[in-house]
Write a structure and sequence with these properties.
Helices cover about 35% and strands about 35% of the residues. The chain is α+β, with helices and mostly antiparallel strands. The chain has a five-stranded antiparallel sheet, covered by helices on one side. The longest helix has 19 residues, at about 15-30.
Length: about 180
């Protein structure tokens, strides 16, 4: 049975592969019930990623379907994700998503010259390590989005509030719940 796992996740193709395709393929093969057979990425008109898909082929049985749901629960999938084909339609996922859109054009030049976005990601990861983590990013013409997923958008946002308020690269940023 071929299924599509539509992930309500904003992931670059390599991140989708590392976080979901490769891990899911490993689990499916270990259980002897199937394999990943591809994936794709849907972009908005802006170029930002809207969602991504992972295509799987599993044994045509309800036991295999139950097993894949357990695997997805263990891996962690964002809310609003779906596992489907013509006969199956299963909402999956319990992770919440947080996007931080860093202003890429309106800050003083010295902020962009002196601040390291990788250090910002690391500092945020440390602050949210008990509720979430960094998954991917998108670089647009006016802003850069950093995508974090975890158990609670509210708690992730709360734990970075002071950091975002005071870090020069985070000035004029916006934070949105994305899952």
């Amino acid at each position: 049975m071929d299924l599509t796992l539509q992930l309500n996740a904003r992931l670059r193709p390599n991140d989708r592969g590392d976080l979901y395709e490769n891990r899911l393929d490993e689990y499916l093969k270990k259980e002897g019930i199937g394999e990943c057979i591809g994936g794709g990425t849907m972009q908005l008109a802006s170029g930002e990623i809207e969602y991504c898909d992972v295509n799987v082929s599993i044994e045509d049985s309800y036991t295999a379907l139950d097993t894949i749901q357990k695997i997805l629960k263990e891996i962690g999938v964002p809310k609003g994700s779906l596992l489907y084909n013509d006969e199956v339609y299963l909402p999956v996922g319990d992770l919440e998503g947080m996007a931080i859109y860093l202003n890429g054009v309106d800050l003083p030049d010295n902020v962009y010259d002196q601040c390291d976005i990788n250090q910002v990601i690391s500092d945020i990861n440390i602050r949210i390590e008990n509720v979430g983590s960094f998954y991917s990013y998108w670089e647009g013409p006016m802003e850069t989005a950093l995508y974090f997923y975890g158990s609670s958008f509210y708690n992730m946002r709360k734990q970075i509030q002071v950091f975002v308020k005071h870090h020069p690269l985070c000035q004029k940023c916006r934070i949105e719940q994305i899952a």
